[in-house]
Amino acid sequence: MMIITGLSLFSSVSKGETDQEAISAVQLTSMVVDTSSGVNHLRMTIKAKRAGNFEGIVDINKAAQKSLEHLFIALTMHDDAFWVNLNPDEPDRIINASLADTDLGRIMLNADYRLKEDVANIINPQSSQVGREFWRRLYQKAEELGAADKIPLVTRLWIVPNLAQVYEKQNQLYITKSSLRVQLEPAYISQRITFKNNREKELQDFTSELMEELVLPQLNKRINEAYGYADLRDVYNALILAHWYKGKFGSGYNSLLQTVNYKVLDDTETDYASTPNEIYQSYLKSIKEGQYSFSETEAFGSPFGMIITTRHYFSGGVDLRDIRLTEISSSPAEETSKDSLLYTCDLLMPRNVERPLQYAKNELSVTSGVNTRDNLSTIMLARSLPAITPVRFSEQNMQSLAVIDKTERVLLSKL
Predict the structure, then answer these.
(1) How many CB atoms lie within 10 A of CB 129?
(2) β partners of residue 178
(3) Average pLDDT, the chain
(4) Rounded to an integer, what distance in angstroms lies between the CA atom of residue 172 and that of residue 136?
């Protein structure tokens, strides 16, 4: 499902009036921190995906500001806040209350809802080869166990952190690889489900094996590559950078955490129109109307056949609390492909800014390409330079200022 606002889709994408490349999604990939001048100077690299056919186009400046918003929220909130849970049995535990009115929280919740839709599509025997194989083998196993009259299927799936491979040098962190994965709940939280008998347990275990073999590989590919999960991948990288920053700099005198506080939440902007409760109600409606439940007639061992009622229920969520960094020893090269572009974002954050997020969005400077990582003295700054900060501009830096105030494109939701 995709909601389009204010712009038509392109059958082919080209540069717009601003001569910016047409991009559909962005992802933070690195951050350099310098506090030597008494303010926090952040330099971030963003990898942007060139827009493909039928993908919404985003303005790079607005997209960079949204990534910055994700980063600031991640710096503000404790790591334990970043979870969502669509479960019919837990209407009061959908999302952390502080994240409910942020795009970061709604991106996670929409990813959970999309995951449930994707699972339903993949195991649908009427439209999916994988689905037909899934149910054929499940019915066969149920028949062997004498449980073909009723197949209880309880499978909860979670999107969780997988790989966060980074390279760290002094006050710099580069995300070399990051990925998410889909995990079955028994493997995820080691929670045992209560069964009436061993036959039900054996059938449920077999179902989990089928999910691992047939369904999870497709889901993992989608969450790490598909356009519909691009926002979630950007959120994940923002959480990785924030996790590193909090561990590296803590809340000392010069730490950005002294400035980026809960006031950030007052200035967040929501591009995702649906509220958490609306998403939850849509999920309940989809269950009641049969998106996640259906019945079929199959013939097993009898010329007359038999009716098998299959009930399956999927829940779970997105849980990005357990981020673990794996360091590599050699400096990575910034990689691009024909489908991606790199941008550099620079920001100076003085201490005690009254509205830190609004200030940061106004002052963020976005330029095409990657500036020298280890040299922050020739930085091209934002529109209004704080007078307390000395800076040396190169001629190339000055020329690049012309790109800052170009016309902004309409931001599209990926829903």
Answers:
(1) 10
(2) 164
(3) 78
(4) 52
